[in-house]
Amino acid sequence: MKVLALKFENFRNLRNDIIEPCGSVNVIYGDNAQGKTNLLEALWFFCGGHSFRPSKDFEVINWDKKFAKLEMRFLGQEREQTAKITFENSKKKAEVNGVPKKSTAALIEKFCAVVFSPEHLSLVKRGPSERRKFIDSAICREKLQNAVLLSKYNRILGQRNALLKDIYRRPSLEETIFVWDEPLIRYGSRLIKQRLDYVKGLSKTAYKYHSGISNNKEQLQIMYVSSANISEDDTLEEIALKLRTALEENRKDDIRTGVTTVGAHRDDIEILINGKNARSFASQGQQRSAVLSLKLAEASVLREKMGEEPVILLDDVLSELDSGRQDFLLNELEGCQVFITCCEKSGKEQLKKGRVFHLKNGEIY
């Protein structure tokens, strides 16, 4: 998977232009607020029609314009293809190879990338929901069926929680809780199995990347932490049995609190560096390296599933990394196309092979 050209029109602060990157490492440097992240965001939109930033679609349109347009020419599935996204008011439209699509979500089957931004440091710094979101996003991109599975699980969970609140006021309703327990177990066990398999593969690859980034000074370990004592070697049937047991044992607490206290929605991913919890003991640089390793491992797992390398987008990735870790990212990621943004005075001098772009006031030089 390689981007051959990206054209943008009225997209955020970027001047209407076209960029033709090289097939290896592309460094985009410049001062803050010049549009570097906007450029990576434009590429990411082709992964399914959404941003990696917490913003609304209409906000990508330049403030004095009525629409924005992105066009990309890329190599994918062993042939050259084109894709287009148009933003107008609060609506988005997508085309692939000149054919209109019903939804921008259809792009996910054509173009694949992995993105790191400073916001992703929340994987280490914040609570379990951020880490679950990371894993669920990854498995949903592997298989669209997983997105349906996750949606069904969340819907059943919401209905069970609503019933739990009613039971507290009307105890006779407790007899109906099994109506929601069975589908919750069915969907939850499948979701957890997908997560376990993914984390198992991710951990091995992340370990290798982190060893390279840290020059073999640190060991990274990723562990799935289950609220129902489920282990990575459990079969689907064993997972379902443990979920059923946990739900039965915690039913009184569920009714008392009005929420389901065990299940896939309460699980976590533990990130360890040299055997210690990264959230509590790792430095800023170590935390950044750990998340980078996870993202690079995500790209590697996607490659195995899809049969081709995803594009790697690294936003403001070099800050707080020492020169050795910077050098690994700039010069050791072979076989894939990489886009790295950095500030004016760092990063580009170490690049041994690739292209360097200067972005100033939304204009590319």
Strand adjacency order, main sheet: 2-1-4-5-6-7
Mean pLDDT score, rounded? Answer: 91
Estimated radius of gyration: 22 Å
Total strands: the figure is: 15
What proportion strand? 15-25%
Strand count, sense and barrel status of the largest sheet are: 6 strands, antiparallel
Proportion of helical residues: 40-55%
Give the number of helices: 10
The topology string of helices and strands comes to: EEEHEEEEEHHHHEHHEEHHEHEEE
- Contiguous low-pLDDT stretches (5 residues minimum) are none
Task: Please tell me what the overall shape is.
Answer: globular
Q: Distance N terminus to C terminus? A: 25 Å
Provide the structure class.
alpha/beta
3D architecture notes:
This protein has 365 residues and is α/β, with parallel strands linked by helices. The chain contains ten helices and 15 strands. It has helices at residues 36-44, 122-125, 128-142, 144-169, 178-213, 236-249, 251-257, 278-281, 284-306, 323-331, and strands at 2-9, 17-19, 25-29, 67-76, 79-88, 91-96, 99-101, 113-116, 220-225, 268-273, 276-277, 311-314, 338-342, 355-360, 363-364. The strands form three sheets. Strands 2-1-4-5-6-7 form a six-stranded antiparallel sheet, with no helix packed on it. The protein has a six-stranded mixed sheet with strand order 8-12-13-3-14-15, sandwiched between helices. Strands 9-10-11 form a three-stranded antiparallel sheet. The longest helix has 36 residues, at 178-213.
